[in-house]
Design the sequence.
């Protein structure tokens, strides 16, 4: 049996159901490659040994093979099925007749409601990878353009390890190179954390003077309702 257990957005975000599941498991693994954790893993205070694993272990047959003979769990920051990698893991397990169960918790998509933007007005989610050397992928801009055309908000997830300053610079350059005119954006830092989220709304130029702790995400609003405009003014 393979359990995929969501940790939520802070060190106490795991559900009661998730805690009960962990007591049944012979091994508990932690997926640690899709997010910059806003807390130390020891802060989880779970009554079990946690084994960090990387992408190759999750995407290989390792977990499925082990789950054939005993109950194991994979801990995932936020909601377990937010990343497509984990849905692939479930499909592979089903092919090999291994039972799976998902224990849900809050995701970043729940947390961004704190901005005051209406969730049903968000379009497709974009992921912005880090630029390295001369490799500067900008395909995420196509998603933003599609969302702007239908006046939908764009949530932009930031690649792990990419600092706020570099991410903002990269976003600004990509938008400029593509000729996409964006007035103001939202920066959301440590959404759902115990110390509270930091949310700021402004132009890319103004935001360059600030700094934010990881993890962060960007939001490009579009087609604002007057209540949304009122909320955003409070983050200016």
Sequence:
């Amino acid at each position: 049996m393979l359990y995929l257990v969501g940790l939520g957005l802070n060190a106490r975000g795991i559900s009661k159901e998730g805690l009960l599941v962990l007591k049944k498991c012979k091994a508990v693994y932690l997926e640690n490659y899709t997010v910059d954790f806003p807390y130390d893993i020891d802060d989880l205070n779970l009554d079990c040994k946690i084994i960090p694993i990387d992408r190759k272990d999750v995407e290989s047959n390792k977990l499925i093979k082990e789950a054939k003979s005993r109950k194991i769990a994979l801990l995932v920051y936020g909601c377990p099925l937010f990343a497509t990698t984990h849905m692939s893991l479930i499909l592979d397990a089903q092919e090999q007749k291994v039972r799976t169960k998902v224990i849900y918790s809050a995701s970043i998509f729940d947390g961004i409601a704190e901005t005051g933007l209406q969730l049903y007005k968000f379009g497709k989610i974009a992921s912005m990878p880090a630029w390295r050397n001369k490799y500067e992928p900008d395909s995420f801009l196509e998603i933003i353009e599609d969302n702007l055309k239908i006046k939908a908000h764009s949530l932009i997830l930031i690649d792990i390890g990419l600092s706020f300053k570099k991410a903002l610079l990269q976003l600004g350059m990509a938008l400029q190179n593509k000729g996409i005119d964006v007035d103001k954006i939202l920066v959301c830092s440590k959404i759902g954390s115990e110390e509270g989220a930091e949310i700021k709304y402004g132009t890319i130029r103004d935001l360059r003077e600030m700094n934010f702790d990881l993890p962060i995400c960007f939001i490009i609003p579009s087609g604002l309702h007057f209540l949304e405009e009122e909320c955003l003014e409070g983050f200016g």
Q: What stands out?
A: The mean pLDDT is 93.
